[in-house]
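wait is this the right file?? whatever heres the structure
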């Protein structure tokens, strides 16, 4: 489910997220396969133009994504300094209700408003990267070296296990990435699940 919320990083972490989450979520009892439709996803930079990680462009098609289903991703990301472990990630996720935006608590350290002290430890790839990453010259583990990374019109299947309590509705998340109290990136994502 974590991958649904982090669609903004899908071009770089989609394969990692699906592999990591499928193995972790398959061990929990409150997971189901649901058919969802993801539409009207938007993202914005809530950080600074001087942050180390800048998403230059991110396009996900089609606009109305069926889960499970295929998506096509094009993205360009600039990494302006080498990124070494530990990399802290703070996620604040919210769902829109009749009472306004309500924060979603962290569930199983996978979905919701979670804190990760070192995102580098989440990668299941200790040394060699899978073919997808190698083919597109994208790092799959730390360190992530300074440089420009991108994909163009890459089609992939999104078929994720999700918590059985996931409801249709409007969601938003703010993802802050930092290293030694220095912000590396901050992005906000909003999505509508139907």
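ok assuming it is, sequence goes like this
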């Amino acid at each position: 489910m974590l991958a649904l919320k982090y669609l903004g990083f899908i071009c770089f972490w989609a394969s990692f997220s699906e592999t990591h989450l499928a193995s972790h979520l398959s061990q929990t009892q409150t997971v189901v396969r649901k058919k969802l439709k993801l539409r009207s996803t938007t993202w914005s930079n809530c950080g600074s133009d001087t942050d180390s990680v800048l998403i230059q462009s991110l396009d996900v098609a089609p606009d109305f994504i069926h889960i499970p289903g295929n998506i096509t991703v094009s993205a360009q990301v600039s990494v302006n300094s080498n990124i070494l472990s530990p990399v802290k990630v703070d996620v604040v996720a919210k769902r829109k209700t009749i009472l306004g935006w309500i924060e979603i608590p962290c569930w199983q350290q996978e979905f919701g408003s979670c804190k990760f002290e070192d995102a580098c430890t989440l990668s299941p790839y200790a040394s060699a990267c899978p073919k997808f990453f190698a083919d597109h010259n994208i790092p799959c583990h730390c360190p992530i070296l300074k440089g420009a990374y991108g994909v163009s019109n890459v089609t992939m299947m999104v078929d994720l296990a999700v918590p059985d309590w996931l409801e249709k509705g409007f969601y938003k998340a703010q993802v802050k990435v930092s290293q030694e109290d220095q912000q590396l990136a901050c992005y906000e994502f909003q999505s509508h699940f139907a």
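The longest strand covers residues 147-158. so i think its the right one actually
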